[in-house]
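for ur thesis appendix - TetR family transcriptional regulator C-terminal domain-containing protein. copy paste whatever u need, i formatted it the way the template wanted (i think)
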Amino acid sequence: MTAQRSIPSAAGAPKGSFYNHFASKEESALEALSRYAAGLRFEILVAPGRPALERLRAHYEFLGADTVDSGFARGCLVGNLGAEVADHSEEIRSAVRGGFQRWASRIRQVLTEAQEAGELDAALDVEEAALFILSAWEGTLIAARADKSSAPFDAFFRMVFGVLLS
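the 3d part is after this line
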C-alpha cells in the first residue's frame, strides 16, 4: 500500500480531502518528516546501563528488523525524500539535511562516549565516522530493499562494528 493511500486511510479521510488539511503536498511531506523521527527510536542511543557501541548497534538492529518485518517495503523516509524530492523543493531539501545532521550528531555523541570509555580508538575522527555510518546505513537500506534480502544488513554490521569500530 502506498503512503498516499495508507495515510488518508489511517486518518479516516478520503484521499482527496486529506490534502485539504495542508497548504500543499510539500507541507504534508514536511509534517511526515517531523513525525518520522519518533519512530527511529533514538532513545536506544542514550539508554543507560549499556556500553555506547552496544547501544549504537541496537539502534541499527532495531531499524534493520523493522525493514525485514515490513517485507523490505519500508526504507528511510528521510533518505527517500532526499533522493526523490530534495532536488525539487528547497524546503524539503533543508528538512532532509537537518534530519541527517541531527541523526549524525546523535551517532557522533555515542562514538565520543565510546572513546571516553576506552571502547573505541581515540584517533578515530568521530565526525567523519558518524557521517560514514549514516551514509553506509542509507545505502544498506537501498540494497536490502532492492535485493529483498538481509545480506546488506549483515555486511553493514560486519564492516561498521567488526572493522571500523573494533
